[in-house]
Write a structure and sequence with these properties.
six-stranded mixed sheet; elongated; Outer membrane lipoprotein wza fold like; 8 helices; alpha+beta; single chain; wza like fold
Amino acid sequence: MFRLLLLSFCAASLLLTACGRYNDLPPGTSRILEASPVLEQQQVVVEQGTATAPDRDYRLGPGDVLFINVNGRPELGSPVTARSADLSGSRIDGTGAVHLPLVGAVSLAGSTIREAQQRLKMAFAHYLNDPWVVVEVTDYRSQPLYLIGQFRSAGTYYMDRPLTLLQGVALGGGLLDTANLRSARLVRDGQIVPVDIARLLREGDAEQNSWLASGDTLYVPDDKNLNVFVFGAVKKPGPVSMPNGRLTLSQALSSAGLNGSRDNQKKLRIIRSHSTTRGELLVLDLGRVLRGEVLPYLLQEGDIIYVPHSAIGSWNQALGELLPSLQTVSALLQPFVQVQYLKEN
């Protein structure tokens, strides 16, 4: 009977201990922690239009070198305006024209090979009876593609046909093992477009395999400098590095330094990217995290953590406060955040 009473007393003591605050527990005490501090979880999908495939025919432009044969007579065709060890011919100048004997300047920029032959034939028809013209591109130089970062053969390449993103990666010899596939960026006409190569390669998401355009810069960073971002009521807002790719929420908040009243910070918010078009909105119980009442919450690369300055009720209100901070680091953010929240701002 005494043994039964002793066991009951011990069980009751353990139960009361488990209900105590983490910082009130004596050393050596064990307790069961809840798995997650997440209070709300919302999946968000961004609808995107389908990109149309470009014209499959190559369009000539300034810098291209052409070999032009007119009636088989060398004196009428290409004068040598470009020469190297392995090519010669007429280079299209900055105005988009080639300069030929007899007809002078003929504008060819923007035309296909077939259209260029027709334009030249019409030009020579003023001087020759039923001329024929053959045009070949001996050096493609008008549609550069710049591959920067974790490519096996990074550099400047020139497209000789429309290329997809995956074909562009292959042009650079593929990617190094250190490439951060989720954080690639495509720079076009001064605009930074997020690209999720990981989703393309690992899940076969064809929507990520966009068409490349002349002058595009494709940048793939390495996976050594991974970050999350902490904004709001903190002393040091901005990126927080993830050593070895791992960081808990408590560690990120400690690095940023909480500021202000803890009463306003009970509901912390996280924006998480999964791809260019899919993301997640999370609301967490910050108090339980700080008191150690839940297991360490692991963050993911690119997570945006927002600690509110005051009590906020909705995501719209939180995003209204957060948007100016996002705009200051827009180039570093994950694809979903850029597409969903910054595209029109």
